[in-house]
Amino acid sequence: MSFQFSRQHLAATALVESGFSRWTRRMTRGETAVLTFHGLRRDGVEPGILDCSLHETVSTFRGICAHLARHYEVVTLERAVGEVGQCQGTDRPRVALTFDDGYQSNLRLALPVLREFGLPATVFVSTAFVGRELLWFQKLDLALERAPGERLTVAIGDAFYDWPLNDESQRRRALTELLAALKKLTWVELNRQVEKILGLLAVDISTHWPEALRPLTEGELRELAASDLVEIGGHTHRHPVLGRCEDEMVRDEILGGAERLNQMIGRQARWFAYPNGGPGDFVGRKSAVWLEEAGFEGAFSMINGRVRPGVSRWSLPRYGAPRSAREAEATVSGAFEVVKEWRQHFKRRAAL
């Protein structure tokens, strides 16, 4: 367990066990916290990838769902957006569940848990991934995990990197720093660098993908879309950071991805999620024109916050995946945010 995870877990435990999160729940009626997962992985099975943060274990996900089903009203995105500011006669705050990219585990592992508790969810799909093409960051994860070499030395822009690859922790650190550097590049330059790095790592990633990394097939996507619990949304075609793309590329990724997705599922996708989705990763006002043209009703970012009155439909907030039921409680109850606001307030007061 990393220090960061330990600190987050300890903070969540304190907020939950003290009863603080039960108090903050009362402040969030009429708002919805949207959680973002990616894939899941089986308990006790080696994942075969470096970035396990995108693939929680089934037992962790089940524990989170059990807690949410017990203490919250888990709603569809339609209700999260359409009923913003409304309490609907319940004293339980609302939460919505989403998954990004289109992993096979959304069907094989997540859907049975959702069925167990009767919880709705939305899966945002990158259509190139469903078409059996690894997304750029997945390629790098798999290549670094399998690379036979002991170092990766590469220049990216004006920066020079030299990462040791002697063990898994070093490879994971290399991946984290590499992805951060690449996300700052234009889409064209990012792809050029990815191909260069794959050549330097000199490893075959075309076959034998680990279970956690496998995408939905088109048939599995249609099976998932046929579930009464799951809605399918758009997530571009190739998962570029839209804020690093030329306008024509943004348009093609939104409209082209939506057209492919609608053909795959046989219906109009209503919701969209920006890849990466942080500040500067998209321009909501500009993208809204193409999103509306594609038939979407709203778009979600990865900027923390709640769906509440006054939030734009084209830059709706989401939280990342909690690592435990206690972290889920501290997040969706608003406890983490209240503590953060208090800290900022006291810092401002101290600076006066």
Provide an overview of this structure.
This protein has 14 helices and eleven strands. The radius of gyration is 20 Å and the shape is globular. The protein has two domains: 31-133 and 209-321, TIM Barrel, CATH 3.20.20; 136-201. It is α/β, with parallel strands linked by helices and 352 residues long. The model has no long low-confidence stretch (mean pLDDT 92). It has helices at 3-17, 20-25, 58-71, 77-82, 105-117, 127-130, 136-146, 168-182, 187-201, 218-225, 247-265, 284-293, 325-332, 335-351, and strands at residues 32-37, 39-41, 55-57, 73-74, 94-101, 121-125, 151-156, 159-164, 230-234, 271-273, 298-300. Strands 1, 4, 5, 6 and 9 form a five-stranded parallel β-sheet that branches. A two-stranded parallel sheet has the order 2-3. The two termini are 39 Å apart. α1 crosses α13 and α3 crosses α13. α5 links the parallel β5 and β6 (121-125).
Percent helix, as a range, is 40-55%
Sheet bearing the most strands, described?
Answer: 5 strands, parallel
**How many domains, in number, for the residues?**
2
**What CATH architecture of the largest domain do you see?**
Alpha-Beta Barrel
* Poorly predicted runs: none
Q: Assign an overall shape.
A: globular
Within the CATH hierarchy, at the fold level, what is the topology of the largest domain? TIM Barrel
Mean pLDDT: 92
* Strand/helix succession: HHEEEHEHEHEHHEEHHHEHEHEHH
User: What's the Cα radius of gyration?
Assistant: 20 Å
Number of strands: 11
Supply the number of helical segments.
14
